[in-house]
Amino acid sequence: MPANRYPYATPDQRVRRLEDEVYLLRRAIIELMPDDIANALSDYRSCKSYREFAEWKRKTVGFIISKAEVDPKASHFEERGWCPLCKGGTRGPYQSGFKIPGGMEKHLMGDGNASQCVVTKAAFDAARDALRDGFEAEEEAARREVEERRKTEQTLLIDPSLPPQLFDERQWWNKPRPADALTAAEERLSSLNFEKEVSQNVIAYKLWYDGRLVLADPRTVGRITFRVFNSETPKKGSKQATFNLLDGWKNNLAEKFQGLLAEACKTLPKRK
Ligand SMILES: [Zn+2]
Q1: Is 256 exposed, middle or buried (0-12, 13-18, 19+ CB in 10 A)?
Q2: Distance 105 CA to ligand 1 centre (A)
Q3: 99-143, pLDDT tens digit by residue?
Q4: 93 alpha carbon – ligand 1 mean position (Å)
Q5: Model confidence pLDDT, tens digit, residues 30-44
Q6: Secondary structure of 50-101 in HEC code, one letter for each residue
Q7: Residue 108 Cα, ligand 1 centroid: separation in angstroms?
Q8: pTM over the 0.85 mark
Q9: Which of 30, 70, 85, 127 has a beta carbon 3.0–4.6 Å from 119's, enabling a disulfide?
Q10: In this predicted model, what pLDDT tens digit does every residue of 215-240 receive, in sequence order?
């Protein structure tokens, strides 16, 4: 243990000073880099959410990989090179450095079990610490907005233990289904004997199968997702089974659906 460096300070003051030192050390690591890389690693201020932050990290890592040079001595049979930031890489008897781009990306992102580059770790941690309060305020505002919208806009019951979802909620990684394609999906559900239940602003597409509740979710373009529950009032987080029916499937639809549904039910606990 190092000697107490701040003998007269209160614990809070010590934490403050250590935080300041961590900040300065991270900045020092970043500023040891060439200007274009130091600028890229510091250019995070436009990120407004964790999602944008994740995109920024990927983009920055892509830029750094574009600066990596292939070292012909590092491998005879694939493109490998050394990290342009920390100059690190593996050292094996037959090949060394990192595979470009895959291994290099893992090293820079700290993905999987790769130990992360000290430079990107310093830069990404510094960025996250600087942005965190803003993200939390932003997410809180977004949560409140969703709750307000749920009161008035059309919503869909996808899981009885959750509040009904907006048609574009948590869909940012998927493309939402346009309104005319929703009609086609409804026709498909009705041909599979689903009942459309509407109460106030909540829609549910329901089917009972062998005492189990099946809820359909047609919000994403290209497929309908089905969730199977052992009861109409499942506890939050209790086991459910899901499967998809692709819009592109045209033949023997009822048979395919029955097969997938029976398979999904096998993964659920036995009903008492
Ligand atoms: Zn590195």
Answers
A1: middle
A2: 10
A3: 999 999 999 998 876 689 999 999 999 999 999 988 888 889 988
A4: 21
A5: 999 999 999 999 999
A6: HHHHHHHHHHHHHHHHHCCCCCCCCCCCCCEECCCCCCCCEECCCCEEEECC
A7: 6
A8: no
A9: 85
A10: 999 998 889 999 999 988 888 878 89
CA of 129 to the centre of ligand 1 (A): 21
Q: Which two tokens stand for residue 265?
A: 């039910």
Q: How far is the CA of 21 from the centre of ligand 1 (A)?
A: 22
d(CA 109, ligand 1 centre) in Å: 10
For ligand 1, the distance from its centroid to the CA atom of residue 30, given in whole angstroms, is 12
The contacts found for 19-25 with CB under 8 angstroms, 24 or more apart, are 23/126, 23/129, 25/122
Give the pLDDT confidence score for residue 248 in this predicted structure: 92
Q: Ligand 1 center to residue 73 CA distance, Å?
A: 19
Closest Cα to residue 224, out of 190, 272, 198?
190
- Ligand 1 centre and the CA of 86: distance in Å? 4
Q: For residue 54, how far is its CA from the centre of ligand 1 (angstroms)? A: 19
Percent of the chain scored above 70 by pLDDT? 95
Distance 116 CA to ligand 1 centre (A): 7
Instruction: Report which secondary-structure segment, H or E, holds 224.
Output: strand 223-229
Distance 7 CA to ligand 1 centre (A): 36
For residue 111, the CA-to-ligand 1 centroid distance in Å is 13
Q: Is 198 helix (H, G, I), strand (E, B) or coil?
A: strand
Quick: pLDDT tens for 170-223.
666 667 788 788 899 999 999 999 999 999 999 999 999 989 999 999 998 889
Backbone phi, psi, residue 97, to 5°:
75, -155
